[in-house]
């Protein structure tokens, strides 16, 4: 099967420091991939390169065969990038909802601005997406009245309202109080079960083991080990993966 997302020779430097040192992987349609690894290994940078929130220093990213971020040898402007970014719904560590808009409006605005839907249709789609993340009961609330877990679920609905081909999650539960983590992971698990294509940067190793098809273990800006989630997490082959997993288990 053709890859939905294809990453080849991805490199990223900040000044003299090379943070990504040649990353290659493919994501098949419907596949869930978890990116794990120590702090500073380059996971978030890698994810942010997918939609050119970070500009890669080298390499190619393709979505459905289309080169992301570069046209005729030139890096595209934010305006040119917008339709490509719309195909990748991104969920950040911090949810960044508009405090002056209701929950529904926060989600509908994505459908209106990104997909150009008329207001009534955007609202309908927003309510549909809020149902998916079990937030219908707070549709008219202000984000300020919500817990962090609820806000993150609204942020997931907002990303879904773009109707993306691929969902990108950048440590979506790291900013949450521990008791709020599970409700967000449950929603992600439900999205996974729907057959969505997902690329997830996470420190939740048990979650990665249970919902990902494959795990990529990043260390020092390279993929040190990649394989079926259960194998990489329960029986890692590489010493660096073993050391990382041992460390976080203790
Ligand atoms: N804008 C930037 N300018 C300079 N260095 C940066 C920038 N963004 C990230 N880095 C550096 O790149 C390296 C990789 O960062 P990145 O956030 O991708 O790691 P990570 O694996 O996601 O870590 P964590 O799990 O702690 O979020 C780190 O050393 C970080 O300090």
Automatic annotation (TrEMBL):
CDD domains found in the cross-reference section: ABC_HisP_GlnQ
Protein location: Cell membrane
Membrane topology recorded in Swiss-Prot or TrEMBL: Peripheral membrane protein
UniProt keyword Plastid present: no
Keyword terms of this UniProt record: ATP-binding, Cell membrane, Membrane, Nucleotide-binding, Transport
Major localization class: membrane
SUPFAM superfamilies: P-loop containing nucleoside triphosphate hydrolases (SSF52540)
GO annotations of cellular component type: plasma membrane
InterPro entries: AAA+_ATPase, ABC_ATPase_HisP-typ, ABC_transporter-like_ATP-bd, ABC_transporter-like_CS, MetN_ABC_transporter-like, P-loop_NTPase
Top-level taxonomic group: Bacteria
PROSITE patterns: ABC_TRANSPORTER_1 (PS00211), ABC_TRANSPORTER_2 (PS50893)
Gene Ontology molecular function: ABC-type amino acid transporter activity; ATP binding; ATP hydrolysis activity
Protein's UniProt keywords contain Acetylation: no
Family that this chain belongs to: Belongs to the ABC transporter superfamily.
Protein name: Amino acid ABC transporter ATP-binding protein
């Amino acid at each position: 099967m053709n890859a939905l997302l294809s990453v080849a020779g991805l490199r990223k430097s900040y000044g003299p420091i090379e943070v990504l040192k040649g990353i290659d992987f493919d994501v098949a349609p419907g596949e869930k991939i978890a990116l794990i690894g120590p702090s500073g290994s380059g996971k978030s940078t890698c994810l942010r390169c997918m939609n050119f929130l970070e500009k890669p220093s080298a390499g190619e990213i393709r979505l459905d065969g289309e080169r992301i971020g570069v046209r005729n040898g030139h890096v595209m402007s934010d305006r040119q990038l917008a339709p490509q970014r719309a195909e990748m719904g991104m969920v950040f560590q911090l949810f960044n909802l508009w405090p002056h808009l209701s929950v529904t409006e926060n989600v509908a605005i994505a459908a209106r601005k990104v997909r150009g839907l008329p207001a009534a249709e955007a609202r309908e789609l927003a309510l549909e997406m809020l149902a998916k993340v079990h937030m219908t009961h707070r549709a008219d609330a202000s984000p300020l009245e919500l817990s962090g877990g609820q806000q993150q679920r609204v942020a997931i609905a907002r990303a879904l309202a773009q109707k993306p081909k691929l969902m990108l999650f950048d440590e979506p539960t790291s900013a949450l109080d521990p008791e709020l983590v599970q409700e967000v992971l449950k929603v992600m698990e439900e999205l996974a079960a729907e057959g969505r294509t997902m690329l997830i940067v996470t420190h939740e190793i048990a979650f990665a083991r249970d919902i990902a098809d494959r795990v990529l273990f990043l260390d020092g800006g390279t993929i040190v080990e990649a394989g079926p989630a259960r194998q990489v997490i329960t029986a890692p082959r590489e010493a660096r993966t073993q050391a990382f997993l041992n460390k976080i288990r203790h």
